[in-house]
Amino acid sequence: MSFRYTKFVLAALAMAVGCLSTHVAAQDEFASAAELKLMEGFPPPADKRVDRSNALMTPPFNRWSYLNMRLLYPTAGIGNASQPIKMPAEIDKGIAALKVVKPDAKGAPTKTKVDMETYLKETYSDALVVVQGDKIVYEKHLNGMDGNHPHQMMSVTKSFAGLFGLQAVADGKADEGEVVSKYLPELKASGAFSDATFKQVLNMTNAMDFSEKYADPESGIQHYGVVLGLMNPQPGKTYANSIYEYLPTLGKDPKHEHGDVFHYQTPKTDVVNWVTNRVTGVSFQKNMFDKLWSKLGTDGETYVLLDTNATLFAGGGLNATPRDLARFGSMMISGGKFGGQQVISKNVISQLSDGASVEAFANGPSSTGMMAAEDWSYRAQWWVRHQKGKEAFTALGIHGQWIYCDIHRGVAIIKQSSQPTSADDYYDAYNLNAWDAIIGHLSN
């Protein structure tokens, strides 16, 4: 699914630094960061060193970097609740004994089933937490993780931006039917956004001419990466000085009209976040604290990555702990309630659960593997599964980051990983098969 997650410039960065020639030769393809001896020594040997040239997307260096992003990039912290709320744990030993269907390379089911330990290893798991109602029923940490250690969440960040956008609508501060240029006059010059509605941008169905050919120095994703400060500029080229200057330059895709096709493109999330910032008057970070963390009793370390202008990476900068995300997941599957108070509007949760146009999703480039075999849609930066008996909405990030919310069966699953591949049908199917096994067990 090459277009599916936030790759912004991650693949381009990996290619640009010649990452393939710097792979650490591991004695075990599933080895942990400690087993690989990454970043050990004073200084670490050159072939064990993690820096910005290999941290974002280069295996196996991401086995270390996803647990330590703050040591490599500028960040902004997000505060915790004044009073922590501990989630009770009632561990269901049956989950550890489950068998998971292992798919073939294209994501199709096979007759092979593996135990949970093998599944966790083969999907490069760093943390897996299963929540049923308000209780943790399964928790496993690997690769040096623990329940209070922050982990890079990649495009899961998008889903928080979409949630804040929907909540702004619920609060009467924005209207999904209005064109985004009403809220952001700066975008009147942009064909991709000037006459696109807020709902279309939320659902990524506005038609945008944006190339994600990572090896092409003239592509949109390369230009975007330079603006964010993740790529070196090409000699002789002129670039926007900030994301706010860059977004108005994006044109409309001449092949489609707004609303026709779901096309996953990261700059759309920047516009969602910008609209929400403008109408609420607060940043993503402040919304995280005010709307969520202050009410969820969080007590771990949470932070977001920043670009060269101290602006949030709205498409992929969140880092959070498994247990804080478990609190969030519990709230999402409980109609927006947590600790006796309504945190997120129940109507917002219902909209996410209902999803959006299955047809627009099927006509887009993300409809492959299990997402082609089943009905899916994309609503407000969340992936929505419509398969009967398996309905859910999920936040997804490259290299295996998940917040899977099944409100019908009251189960949330948080997975943090450092997979070697950014996104493909094999890993998606493997993880979804695990979620089906876990939820099937808990439902019975």
Automatic annotation (TrEMBL):
Residues 1-26 form the signal peptide. GO terms for molecular function: 6-aminohexanoate-dimer hydrolase activity. Its EC number is 3.5.1.46. Residues 124-430 form the Beta-lactamase-related domain. InterPro entries: Beta-lactam-related (IPR001466), Beta-lactam/transpept-like (IPR012338), Diverse_Enzym_Activities (IPR050789). Keywords: Hydrolase, Signal. Pfam families: Beta-lactamase (PF00144). Transmembrane segments: none annotated. This is 6-aminohexanoate-dimer hydrolase.
